[in-house]
């Protein structure tokens, strides 16, 4: 089977690892660190989907001189939405602070300030929006999500970002306590990648 090359628009090693694992059966995945430095597109959209689409198109243009023939570009915008906080931090999930630990502290501080201490009031979801493009054409745009609860304190050292705060009730532990395989089975990113993988299998692979 001929596998297409997909350049995933990230320098986050955790995200790249998850995408490479999720798409490895159908594509050869590269990250931004495999190419000369390019500016990071501004995430100015009002939704994860808008940002993913804009990032994919921007990276496709910026990387065009360096891409293999027929290579594809995949971009994602993902984040955490806490229902009691009107979706905070939402599309600004990665921008409320420069450090993962500080971001987690800010989220917990807002929940504490609002008096949200019981499990029901701390319900949240992770969202992943992805766009797959070639040149200036969007081939596929998908979203995945997973529901959970914000834990009172970070637990576990696995994953990245808000994973140690995101308690997944069916597992009885946070994503930070999950193995990569456990997280891949249920995560928002895995759900989006499943749709992308199906699209690639049906449209972009050759026996």
Structure explained in plain terms:
- The chain is α/β, with parallel strands linked by helices and 207 residues long.
- It has a single domain, classed as Maf protein (Alpha-Beta Complex), CATH 3.90.950.
- Helices cover 31% and strands 24% of the residues.
- The chain contains five helices and seven strands; from the N terminus they run βαβαβαββββαα.
- It has helices at residues 13-23, 48-63, 100-113, 180-186, 188-203; strands spanning 5-8, 28-31, 72-82, 123-134, 137-150, 166-168, 173-174.
- It has a seven-stranded mixed beta sheet with strand order 2-1-3-4-5-6-7.
- Helix 1 crosses helix 5 and helix 4 (180-186) packs across helix 5.
- The longest helix has 16 residues, at 48-63.
- The model has no long low-confidence stretch (mean pLDDT 94).
> Briefly, what CATH class?
Alpha Beta
Given helix and strand content, the structural type is: alpha/beta
According to CATH, the fold-level topology is: Maf protein
**How are the strands of the biggest sheet laid out side by side?**
2-1-3-4-5-6-7
What number of domains?
1
Total DSSP helices = 5
| Strands, count | 7
Question: Helical residue percent?
Answer: 25-40%
Euclidean distance between termini CA atoms: 4 Å
Overall average residue pLDDT: 94
Unreliable stretches covering 5 or more consecutive residues: none
CATH architecture: Alpha-Beta Complex
H-E order: EHEHEHEEEEHH
Question: Which of globular, elongated, flat, extended, rod-shaped describes the shape?
Answer: globular
Radius of gyration: 17 Å
Quote the beta fraction: 15-25%
* Biggest beta sheet summary: 7 strands, mixed
